[in-house]
Predict the 3D structure of the following.
Amino acid sequence: MNDKKNEQSVTKISEAKIYDVLSNVYDPEIPIDIVNLGLIYGIDIIGDKVLVKMTMTSPGCPASVQITSESKYLIEELDGVSEANIEIVWDPPWDPGRMSEEARQSMGFT
């Protein structure tokens, strides 16, 4: 029987969906999400796998494990994602200029 209900549907993964879930991940030392902090350097989607290239505010960031673990978990909870990997990159180094305007204002940078 050729029933469309039995066919597996594939959910399209988009960068927008990834950014949306990552906006729920906060650096516990700074009350701003990692997207508005400018920590996300790139997102690659290949089929049902997602690779996020991101940085931290400093190489010794004590929250790096928490941030990457939470990011991976939230991405893998999305429909259509079978695997998420987080790659920490240090080039270019993060600086406050990478923050969104909203984040800069909330931190007192103008």
